[in-house]
Amino acid sequence: MMSTTDTETYTVDAIMDTIESNNYHIYFEDSLTALRTFVANGNYSRFFVLTDENTAQYCLPLLREKLGDPENFDLIEIPAGEESKDIDFCIGVWKMLIDFGADRQSLLINLGGGVISDLGGFAASTFKRGIDFVHVPTTLLSQVDASVGGKTGIDIDSIKNIIGTFTQPKAVFIEQQFLKTLPARQILSGNAEMLKHGLICDEEYWNLLKTSDLENPTAALVYKSVQIKNKIVLEDPHEKNIRKALNFGHTIGHAVETWSLINDKDSLSHGEAIAIGMICEAYLAHKKTGLSAAELEEITRTLTNLYPRYELKMEHSATLLEYMLKDKKNQNGKINCTLLSTIGQFNIDNVCTNDELLEGLNYYASL
Amino acid sequence: MMSTTDTETYTVDAIMDTIESNNYHIYFEDSLTALRTFVANGNYSRFFVLTDENTAQYCLPLLREKLGDPENFDLIEIPAGEESKDIDFCIGVWKMLIDFGADRQSLLINLGGGVISDLGGFAASTFKRGIDFVHVPTTLLSQVDASVGGKTGIDIDSIKNIIGTFTQPKAVFIEQQFLKTLPARQILSGNAEMLKHGLICDEEYWNLLKTSDLENPTAALVYKSVQIKNKIVLEDPHEKNIRKALNFGHTIGHAVETWSLINDKDSLSHGEAIAIGMICEAYLAHKKTGLSAAELEEITRTLTNLYPRYELKMEHSATLLEYMLKDKKNQNGKINCTLLSTIGQFNIDNVCTNDELLEGLNYYASL
């Protein structure tokens, strides 16, 4: 069991300095100019930009303009959506790199959301035993979550991130302008991870988020979430202990997300699924690790106000438990959850029984 | 340009102590007992043995007997042969690990030749972002080459090791008994890498090998080759400089191997292809880096005496050059070779023109 004892407060109107991460930098201010400098000075032989059809349309023009359309740029485009994180698309990216003649001095620029950074990071970290890559996250979710921390991953049979590596990007460039291209539902998806950062580590930030206009998150809020996540992953890059804090809401949330991906025509977004997961796991935290009834109520109310209700049918819970059993966080076949002891304090490595997990699901279903 | 200035000599009748590599050990004496201890003390939740149909038949019984058939052992079997290194088989291994319920505390034991250790190492290093693996190499080639050095790799479209990682095994267990199960042609395949070790680093060892009964290599000879390879990879694990020494014969050899894999019914073994590559590249070394005519003649004679002649048709050379162009060792689209300055001294990063490479191929073809 572990929790942060850190009482440091983050100011939300701080100058957004470049953040130092694990041997790389995360750029905020005028970040695409920083990318241009990186590309010019990097001694790379070739540049590849991985996009999906959306980022190719909405984000690539700005990137091209800022970079001055350099030579040796080739595009690799995959369809938008979580389905593209499948190994088959990864093989497609590898084959395009082969066909383009990419060598070990090539740089892959991942322009997109979490699917692009996770898949692109994995493809690059394994191509010819590893080429350099950078992230230009274009969704709120990828800015505050996927692009920071050095996890890469792809899916097999809809099992999320079952294959991946721990490999750090060479840099991350966070450009606020891209958020303006996003539909509200995608912003809301990113909000879930920001709210999680408050819940696990920083009550003050949680309180601030509750009263903020989350549909239009300020650059300072994004910056603060990146600070929180970066602090955690720097302390524990390979998820041996405190990085597990970030899994709050994800044991149940990932299972719900997988279910929805397979069964729903209009699948849940990652954030929508994680919001459900956080409600269920807040219930478990109340039962197991001391989260008060008032706090459970506060978390439940905040999240159900923000996110649309999802019909969780209890007759599907056996399948959900099956997905949870395949979760990477498990040990010795036991399902492991990160819970809260209070808002702002996490508690890792809680083995949950099937009955407890069913109770958690049932809590959400009966709201 | 670089070459070893090391004048240390290796004794071939040394006691075969455990060799220390990059945070792991390579066991020789009574190595399967060492494996049993490793398995017993390793705090693993589950054990998986990756075999091919040959090692399942000839090597697995001894492994089982020595390990006392512990609980929690599951087998994953793939067909024998280089074709099994394809990404499709890797996906098969991942899916079996998923189906068996492998968690992050699982250990994968790679029982087989280079295909098993390369593929198994890659599958393990990426499954759930990395589980532990050990190698029990059962061919001479994998004992002196693939199992040492932390390279993992799989093929796509017959392009060898185009995808992979640098990940160290947790231990390597070299068991001489397994060599007795091998056909002569497989022993000869391993001999090529041993001869290469002499050519690049140790003239004395090369002279010793020339007069040894290579069909029945002694444990001391195997040990010495592992020592040489381990010394190089420890100095340069990620192949930034001197590890490239090990690529001697491989730029042309890999291309010939790929050609044969695609076109011949009875494909060349790795060693047979590398022997051809070493002859062609010795010719380039004579032309470019000072290898004497007498040394070229000596290398050519030794290798052509040991290995069957292969009909290298010059009308296929354009295709061979295409394969060489896709080689991982290239930079900026230029084909890069490791050559020799004399027997026992290597010379890395030699850019070779198409004409030079064609001359090298032609040298072999006109023998």
Automatic annotation (TrEMBL), chains A, B:
Residues 190-330 form the 3-dehydroquinate synthase C-terminal domain. GO terms for molecular function: 3-dehydroquinate synthase activity. InterPro entries: Dehydroquinate_synthase (IPR050071), DHQ_synth_AroB (IPR016037), DHQ_synth_fam (IPR030963), DHQS/DOIS_N (IPR030960), DHQS_C (IPR056179). It comes from the Bacteria. It is an enzyme of class 4 (lyase). The keyword Amino-acid biosynthesis applies. Catalyzes the conversion of 3-deoxy-D-arabino-heptulosonate 7-phosphate (DAHP) to dehydroquinate (DHQ). This is 3-dehydroquinate synthase. It comes from Mucilaginibacter antarcticus. The lineage of its organism: Bacteria, Pseudomonadati, Bacteroidota, Sphingobacteriia, Sphingobacteriales.
